[in-house]
């Protein structure tokens, strides 16, 4: 476990929105954060009103809200007043189609302006928005639309033709297809969205939705079974706004870039809602990952706050330190990471290369927003998730057949649990009450992750409960082994699983990819085994190492250990709908 501490200077602490964490724990709670919002005139809480309309009502309509960079060099900018007009128009279109409050609107769009307008316009109308990965195949799309009872689908003509057109008979509740970039609308039963919006009046008052009204539906996959539809309500905006200001340290006038795919919960919570409620300029880059292009965007667009994934950071590390030094990145003030735990080596690398660390944080689709974070004014311990948000109660639990017990000892491994009640907590798995109830026990939400808490109150990720390796009486967390392997200069990424062994029960096997210029060989494998043994000791170090060209990962960037294990042991591979099919994608 890395114990290095990156100390924040007094200027960093003073400039942060939350300058004193301990004081904030005493003075701030969810009622405080509710007071940071405006609420609809006459009552009601609506995400889209807080994200757009209130800025216009308060005289900030001329501020740049959305800056879109197309993959072919296009550039489109929208002020908050522009976004209000376009989202009003979309909400009015839904109303004109006879679609009222609660309508289920699904999207298969990528990072294009129409996605953001549709998402916010749906929420403004009181509907429920569900983003899907545009790279999903037909069956994952059909399954999610069936479970979610989709009534409207927004897609490009190409995606609709490939993935949905043939499935229309299996989706009887799907009433309207809205197609982008579709002059003349050549598909029977579909509507040209651009043409329809041009004929729609841009006048609409945001629906005065109640805090508990359903607003967002995000699907998450387990290792087996059908996708789970996590339901979030309009009150989630309280957490989105608070964490944007506290965990991401968004300031007035910031230019903010979240690289997450819109089909992932981060792409909604922190790729749309949090930055807009904070009134900043939200940068959207349509193109996929390319290290030089990313650095160019950061420098040219003068990005202040950057939120990205560990996979992307590791790919940037793989591309070398010369690239960032060739760009002026002096405007970058705060960098954060999400998606899976960030290895200590990556945090130390960023401190060396950028002069500031990436700040890891922890949350899930089910939590809806950031729950644990490394904050702008807080010292960073590389490898740690940080400390809980004010208002969030987190504990390490022992869980067995008799119940739960809070673990008091420092650095003792247990189940990471949260006390229910935060605004962005999921309210159900759609149509699966038993599955939902199983995530709670004795007044705690069980995250499924194992973690530790140190003497200073920092939390450390150990692994998913079902990823833990039991070898000769030792409980081994994959993250610790993977982090040690990544410290070797030849290794770009690592994934660790347990495989059966007659004597030890399980032994550790590691899969690694190599940095540019490195060549796989038996000698290198032996060197890596020796490095791990020296770093971790014989009881924890891997017994086997396999050098791979790439590792299987989800479209949000998480390495799929369970898929590596299934393939190694010849087991069923389970749900592969979120598997990233393009090697090297980071978003």
Fold and architecture overview:
With 587 residues, the protein is α/β, with parallel strands linked by helices. It folds into two domains: 444 residues, ANL, N-terminal domain (Rossmann fold, 3-Layer(aba) Sandwich), CATH 3.40.50.12780; 102 residues, GMP Synthetase, Chain A, domain 3. Helix content is 30%, strand content 23%. It contains 19 helices and 28 strands. The strands form six sheets. It has a nine-stranded mixed β-sheet with strand order 2-1-11-10-12-13-14-15-16. Strands 17, 18, 19, 21, 22 and 23 form a six-stranded antiparallel β-sheet that branches. It has a five-stranded parallel β-sheet with strand order 4-3-5-6-7. α4 crosses α5 and α4 packs across α6.
Quick synopsis:
This protein is α/β, with parallel strands linked by helices and 587 residues long. The chain contains 19 helices and 28 strands.
The DSSP helix count reads 19
- Alpha carbon gap, first and last residue: 28 Å
Structural class: alpha/beta
Q: Overall pLDDT, averaged?
A: 91
CATH architecture annotation of the largest domain:
3-Layer(aba) Sandwich
- Residue stretches low in confidence (pLDDT < 50, at least 5 long) are 582-587
What's the name of the CATH homologous superfamily of the largest domain?
ANL, N-terminal domain
Using the coordinates above, name the CATH class of the largest domain.
Answer: Alpha Beta
Biggest sheet record = 9 strands, mixed
What fraction of residues sit in β-strands? 15-25%
User: Per CATH, what is the topology of the largest domain?
Assistant: Rossmann fold
How many DSSP-defined strands?
A: 28
| Helical proportion, percent range | 25-40%
Rg over alpha carbons: 23 Å
What does the overall shape look like? globular
Across the major sheet, the strand order is 2-1-11-10-12-13-14-15-16
């Amino acid at each position: 476990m890395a114990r290095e501490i990156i100390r924040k200077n007094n200027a960093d602490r003073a400039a942060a929105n939350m300058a004193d964490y301990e004081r904030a724990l005493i003075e701030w709670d969810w009622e405080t954060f509710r007071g940071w919002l405006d609420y609809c005139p006459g009552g009601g809480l609506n995400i889209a009103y807080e994200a757009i309309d209130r800025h216009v009502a308060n005289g900030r309509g001329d501020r740049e809200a959305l800056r879109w960079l197309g993959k072919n060099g296009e550039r489109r900018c929208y002020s908050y007043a522009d976004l209000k007009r376009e989202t009003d128009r979309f909400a009015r279109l839904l109303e004109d189609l006879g679609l009222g409050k609660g309508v289920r609107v699904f999207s298969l769009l990528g990072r294009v302006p129409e996605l953001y307008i549709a998402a916010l316009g749906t929420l403004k109308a009181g509907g429920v928005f569900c983003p899907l990965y545009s790279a999903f195949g037909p069956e994952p799309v059909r399954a999610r639309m069936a479970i979610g009872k989709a009534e409207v689908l927004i897609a490009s003509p190409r995606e609709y033709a490939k993935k949905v057109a043939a499935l229309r008979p299996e989706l009887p509740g799907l009433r309207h297809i809205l197609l982008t970039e579709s002059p003349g609308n050549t598909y029977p039963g579909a509507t040209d969205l651009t043409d329809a919006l041009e004929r729609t009046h841009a006048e609409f008052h945001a629906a005065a939705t109640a805090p508990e009204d359903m607003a967002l539906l995000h699907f998450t996959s387990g290792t087996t079974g059908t996708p789970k539809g996590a339901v979030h309500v309009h009150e989630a905006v309280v957490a989105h706004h608070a964490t944007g200001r506290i965990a991401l340290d968004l300031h007035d006038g910031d230019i903010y870039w979240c690289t997450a795919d819109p089909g992932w919960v981060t792409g909604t919570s922190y790729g749309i809602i949090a930055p807009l409620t904070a009134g900043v300029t939200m940068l959207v880059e349509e193109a996929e990952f390319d290290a030089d292009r990313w650095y160019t965007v950061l420098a040219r667009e003068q990005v202040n706050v950057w939120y990205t994934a560990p996979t992307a950071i590791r790919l940037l590390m793989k591309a070398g330190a010369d690239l960032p030094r060739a760009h002026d990145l002096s405007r970058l003030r705060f960098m954060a990471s999400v998606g899976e735990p960030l290895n200590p080596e990556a945090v130390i690398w960023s401190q060396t290369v950028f002069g500031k660390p990436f700040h890891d944080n922890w949350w899930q689709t089910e939590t809806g927003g950031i729950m644990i974070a490394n904050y702008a004014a807080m010292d960073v311990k590389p490898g740690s998730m940080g400390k809980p948000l004010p208002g969030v109660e987190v504990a390490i639990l022992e869980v067995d057949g008799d119940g739960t017990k809070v673990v008091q000892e420092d650095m003792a491994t247990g189940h990471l649990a949260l006390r229910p009640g935060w605004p962005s907590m999921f309210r159900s798995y759609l149509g699966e009450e038993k599955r939902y109830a199983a995530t709670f026990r004795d007044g705690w939400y069980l995250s499924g992750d194992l973690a530790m808490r140190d003497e200073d109150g920092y939390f450390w990720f150990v692994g998913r409960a079902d990823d833990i390796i039991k070898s000769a009486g030792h409980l081994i967390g994959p993250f610790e082994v993977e982090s040690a392997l990544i410290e070797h200069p030849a290794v770009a990424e690592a994934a660790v699983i347990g495989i059966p062994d007659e004597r030890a029960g399980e032994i550790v096997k590691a899969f690694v990819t190599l940095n540019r210029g490195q060549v796989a060989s038996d000698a290198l494998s032996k060197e890596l085994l020796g490095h791990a043994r020296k770093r971790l000791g014989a009881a924890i170090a891997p017994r086997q190492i396999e050098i791979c060209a790439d590792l299987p990962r989800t479209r949000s960037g998480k390495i799929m250990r369970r898929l590596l294990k299934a393939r190694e042991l010849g087991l069923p591979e389970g749900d592969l709908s979120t598997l990233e099919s393009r090697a090297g994608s980071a978003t």
